[in-house]
Amino acid sequence: MSNATQYLSLKDTLDLFSKSDDSLRAEIKAHLNQTKHKFIVLDDDPTGVQTVHDIFVITDWGKDWIKKGLSDERSVLYILTNTRSYNAEKTENINREIVQNIVDVTKEMGINYSIISRSDSTLRGHYPLEINVLQDELLKTADVQISGHLIIPAFFEAHRYTIDNIHYLGMEGQLVPVNETEFANDSVFGFKTANLAKWIEEKTNGSVASESALIISLEDIHNGGIDRVYEILLSANNNTPIIVNAKSYYDLDIVSLAVLKAIDSGKQFLFRTAASIVKSIAGIQDRPYLSANEIVSNDESQNNGGFIIVGSHTNKTTEQIKELMNKYPIEQIEMNVVKVLNKETRIEELTRVCQLVDQNISSNRDTLVYTSRDLISVKDKEENLKISQTVSSSLVKVIRSLKVKPKFIMAKGGITSSDVATDGLDIKYAKILGQAIAGVPVWLTGSEAKFKDTPYIVFPGNVGDKDSIAQIFENIKKDQKGEI
């Protein structure tokens, strides 16, 4: 960032009007316990559980799995859709099928619910497609009229904030508009503006004008409180977009209480959000980060090496794996993407990587597999998705080839971690233990998985500082051996 003076100061901006009220989350929880209302989160990659703990995620949206997921007293259930890695047609089909199954199951169980479409805090993903499909299918199958959809990309654990309708990323002590970061140049989901009202207009190709969005400002939240936000929500009709500004969990907790009040009044909402609002609106309290012993298997696999697999190509990820390799003795295996994409050399390259990984892990050597760092992309969005899918499926083959259970498993990148979970580890039903560090969730695999009762560290591609992977690795090694 050569011209930092153009950006807001992260500390000064967030200190302004900062508030907190620990009782709000308890009030939300009490309300949900009374009403039994549930939030079903359709997560377009597996990183969306990065703010919550002691809840479940399912990767199969058949009716039996949805029923299992909704059968306890918890107020939130995640369904991993992985739609960010799919084209528009497949994304639409998945969302329609899930809504149909949700409607049938909740009708049978007598459950009132709202659907959250959880996506990226850097504004990438299938918007407005997924919201429009959810609205249409709910109207068709359940005669539900959606009043509005709340757009809430704030994700505080990774320093993402919305102020005066501009969505910012905290970087090097500055608040940088998200359109000025590498994420806005995404080959599939790129965009030009960080002003959410104008972003809506851009993403809808002008069919939804920027001035048509309802705004919940920080002034509304701080000065008007629950009643003012509730008043704005009551004015929503015909699935109007509702932009939520937020700098802290206090802001989201006020909005959450107003949303619950509006739902009680008969309003129906959808949500297009990042991860932080789920923690708020489900009334989930804070808990400490997980200890090393909580993210390492407590069985015979302790004698095996740990495994880190990296597919994400963001600059942030590249810096993180370089820091890990420079700091700590870990076996390093680079998967050559050019060879993987070539049908004539793919099998040979995969065989090489799989054999090395198995040898290392069975010999108690911690191992890092990462894709070659030269980004291969083309102009066509569909072809870029196919490239990502081919690379990710190759990483899945590495996981599936494992003959021994690693003492810990970490996957870096949204598409990578999703495919590793569903296709590599065969996870259908997992418990979210908590976070290894801010924004990095840990799943505990179910009995159906390739390696059951195994902590699985899901590391988003766009999260963390330069030393974040190394920090988790160091925490594990210190706790396991007392030293690195």
List key phrases describing it:
2 domains, Molybdenum Cofactor Biosythetic Enzyme, Chain A, Rossmann fold, alpha/beta, 19 strands, 484 residues, 15 helices, 40% helix, four-stranded antiparallel β-sheet, 4-carb_acid_sugar_kinase_N, 15-stranded mixed β-sheet
CATH superfamily of the largest domain: Putative sugar-binding, N-terminal domain
Structural class: alpha/beta
Measured by DSSP, the beta-strand proportion falls in 15-25%
Helix tally equals 15
The end-to-end distance, rounded to whole angstroms, is: 34 Å
Domain Four-carbon acid sugar kinase N-terminal: 40-280
Keywords: ATP-binding, Carbohydrate metabolism, Kinase, Nucleotide-binding, Transferase
Family: Belongs to the four-carbon acid sugar kinase family.
Domain Four-carbon acid sugar kinase nucleotide binding: 308-468
Molecular structure report:
- The chain has 484 residues and is an alpha/beta fold.
- It folds into 2 domains: 278 residues, Putative sugar-binding, N-terminal domain (Rossmann fold, 3-Layer(aba) Sandwich), CATH 3.40.50.10840; 189 residues, 3-Layer(aba) Sandwich (Molybdenum Cofactor Biosythetic Enzyme, Chain A).
- 40% of the residues lie in helices and 19% in strands.
- The protein is built from 15 helices and 19 strands.
- Helix 10 packs parallel to helix 15.
- The protein is globular and about 60 Å long.
- The N terminus is likely disordered.
